[in-house]
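Chapter summary example.
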Amino acid sequence: MFQNGTDEGFVNPEQIGYVGFANLPNQVHRKSVKKGFEFTLLVVGESGLGKSTLVNSLFLADLYPERHIPSASEKITQTVKIDASTVEIEERGVKLRLTVVDTPGFGDSLNSEDCFTPIIEYIDEQFERYLHDESGLNRRHIIDNRVHCCFYFINPSSHGLKPLDISFMKAVHHKVNIVPVLAKADTLTKKEVLNLKRKIMDQIDEYGINIYPLPDCDSDEDDDYKEQCRQLKEAVPFAVVGSSESFEVNGKKVRGRRYPWGVVEVENPDHCDFIKLRTMLITHMQDLQEVTQEIHYENFRAEKLAGGKVVKQRTSRSGVQQPEATDREQALMEKEAELRQMKEMLAKMQAEMAAQKTGNSPVSNHQPRQNGEVKSQNV
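The structure predicted for these 379 residues follows.
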């Protein structure tokens, strides 16, 4: 039933000065939840630092069910591999397509001078693929496989950054968000952890390495969030311990590592920075994606456009954009254009000769023609 041209079942907010655009965040939330999220995490570090265990602990998933640990003889000639594992995680209706890129063999060879070249090539390849898809016709369903974050694992027994650590981070800090991670923090005392953190940060500043800067809090944020951001910034590099085993401590099941003197709890902030690292990753996941899009990807795109290496588009007669022809196709097209031009000139000359033979008034070979006409002797 309709009354006065309106549906009586429609509810109209009876508030003065209320338009309704305050509901826009809810619309964005519903659309994002329906679409799902994509995130790519790169883990780099020497073998034996617990990279796989930490990733499995972070996302409560077994991403490496058939992981092969190389022997000492295999490490001599081992090269860096790129191992990407993708898993879809759903939590309270929110879907996350997580891709973890592992780099087995990094730093294991005797000569590690160019061991990170495959990693740089992989990062650039994902940028190149995204740029190609973005420049194509179908841009609605682009899969974002760009690397959004890089966990770089630092050996706790190296007393700071090694030359390989410095070389790698300086080579990729303008391509990806680097988050330094101090692995196996349970092998150090609290004082040793603090001293090593301070030394690593001093070396990062000394060599001009740009790590991922945690965003500053706005002035209107609550005090709890400001305190959380302050603690996360002070925790860099994050001293972590990973474990997939559970033990019972004080009547409560916890994940950790058992030692003769007790259990190191992974999710205890007093034992390690595992909770802080996970909080940083989850809380600032959107910011990591935005920094990748607005800074790292835009720098790559601008460099490609300035260098002229981007695949250009040409428009066909039907108005549809098609990829530019290759050098061989371009040469064939130029030859065909020359042949067409020669045929046109030959046909024009034959037409002029035929017009001379059938003309009403014969013209001498040495008599000049009128304006705009070609002399017969030139033919």
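To summarize the output: The domain at 22-306 is CATH 3.40.50.300 (Rossmann fold).
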